[in-house]
Write a structure and sequence with these properties.
Blueprint lengths: L3 H11 L5 H12 L18 H9 L13 H12 L3 H6 L1 H7 L2 H8 L4 H19 L5 H12 L4 H22 L5 H16 L3 H4 L4 H15 L2 H10 L2 H13 L1 H12 L12 H12 L2 H7 L6 H6 L5 H5 L1 H9 L5 H12 L3 H11 L9 H17 L3 H14 L7 H15 L1
Helix pairs in contact: 1-2, 2-4, 4-8, 7-8, 7-9, 8-10, 9-10, 10-13, 11-13, 13-16, 13-17, 15-18, 22-23, 22-24, 23-24, 24-25, 24-26
Length: about 425
């Protein structure tokens, strides 16, 4: 980690390196060290942050004579990779990146057979793609997808190439979010959507796919392009749509964390953090999308993730925003029973039971017996918590008359048996 001592001793260290190009490269390596966490930063520290340090050094790039160094070409390549690791410094080299970019660079990158080389080489390509996206140009991303799909290298390394390239794009989006214009959000929505929909199956499922899905959802929600977002989801082949939905369900934390980080929903600065109306509008764009419907139609929870990641407050779930979102996204009763739970946790029993009753009107037991039983038992749990034992007893009898528990999964049969014991006691 960078520290005041590192900052003070850097010039003395650099004096020990004779080759100017190597000295510059070493300087960038040190300046690129990550900053300590805010709570660990020294109270009297006066050094600039990592992005500022690299940007200041990047301005001297044209002063370096790489040709005079014995390993000048390699050092120059490494220097560019280091400078393009952050957006402020990468922007300084934009004209150089534009001049040297070729579509075939993407194919060379995807055929690299070394994990560390892929990680480093992703920086200039990802940074240049991000710079293009500022003006709505997705061509570099399209070049990368074509290269990954047609590269002849090992699938593992092709997956790694897509992963690191995509994560570099996401770093830029997080940096740009507070000042990004509508066309930039729309371009990110398109570009990330292409990375999710157009890559071949064997290279799609790298271990950061949930993070990229979250970023795509964030860019799409922020762009407000409901029609385009919906058209993208509707065009997904069923197998691909289910793959993406399954990723969200199985790894929700990286997906929702990416979503919240990009939209700055927990930013301490209120000038950056979206207000209640903006957050509700973004969620409204999100919940009408077919991919989100496929993900959460018969699955729970949804509101809890929205609350945990700053898209809604608990109070908003219990108030009009929650009511409006439930109307848009009933999820066969799961949204209503989630809202009921929030009211129950606040001791608002009448409201909780009203929402719980409403949840059972959103689906039919003869068509969706498992989900109906799960939701009905949650309503019964609320009745028990509200000290309405006789109503709970009647409710479980009514449920048993509607649903044959012997045909339901083991977890539901166990929940039913446990609930029966609670009612009897």
């Amino acid at each position: 980690r960078y520290s005041p001592r590192t900052h003070e001793q850097l010039s003395l260290f650099l004096e020990t390196i004779e080759d100017p190009a190597m000295r510059y490269f070493a300087e960038l390596i040190v300046l690129g060290a990550f900053d300590p966490a805010p709570e660990l930063r020294e109270a009297d520290a006066s050094y600039p942050g990592r992005a500022g340090r690299l940007a200041a050094a990047a301005k001297r790039f044209t002063e370096i004579d790489f040709g005079a160094s014995p390993r000048g070409a390699l050092v120059r390549e490494r220097v560019i990779q280091q400078i393009t690791s952050t957006d402020p410094s990468a922007s300084i080299l934009e004209s150089l990146l534009e001049k040297e970019y070729r579509a075939e660079n993407c194919l060379t990158y995807c055929n690299l057979g070394n994990h560390k080389k892929i990680e480093h080489a992703s920086r200039p390509l990802g940074a240049f793609a991000a710079l293009r996206l500022r003006s709505g140009d997705t061509s570099v991303v399209e070049d990368m997808i074509a290269a990954a799909n047609h590269a002849t290298g090992n699938d593992y390394y092709r997956r790694s190439a897509l992963r690191y390239f995509s994560l570099r794009l996401l770093d830029s989006l997080k940096h740009r979010a507070p000042q990004a214009k509508p066309e930039e959000w729309a371009a990110y929505s398109t570009a990330l959507g292409l990375l999710l929909s157009e890559t071949k199956d064997e290279i799609l499922e790298h271990n950061s796919i949930a993070t990229i899905i979250g970023a795509h959802l964030a860019a799409s929600a922020r762009s407000g392009r409901v029609a385009e977002f919906t058209a993208w989801a509707n065009a997904l082949p069923p197998d691909r749509a289910e793959t993406l939905a399954r990723k969200i369900r199985r790894t929700p934390l990286p997906c929702w964390t990416s979503f919240g980080q990009i939209l700055k929903t927990k930013a301490p600065d209120p000038a950056i953090r979206p207000g209640p109306e903006a957050r509700e509008q973004m969620l409204s764009t999100l919940v009408v999308n077919p991919l989100i419907d496929r993900t959460y139609r018969l699955h729970d929870p949804f509101f809890r993730f929205a609350v945990d990641h700053g898209m809604l407050s608990v109070e908003e779930v219990r108030a009009e925003p929650g009511k409006r979102l439930e109307a848009l996204f009933p999820r066969n009763g799961y949204s209503a029973i989630e809202i009921a739970r929030y009211h129950a946790d606040a001791g608002e029993w009448d409201a909780a039971l009203e929402w719980a009753a409403k949840s059972l009107t959103r689906l039919k037991p003869d068509k969706l017996g498992g989900p109906y039983a799960r939701i009905a038992m949650r309503r019964i749990e609320i009745l028990l918590e509200a000290q309405r034992g006789s109503e709970a007893k009647n409710a479980i009898s009514e449920l048993e008359a509607k649903v044959d528990f012997t045909k339901l999964p083991a977890d539901l049969r166990q929940s039913h048996a446990t609930l029966r014991k609670r009612i009897k006691s």
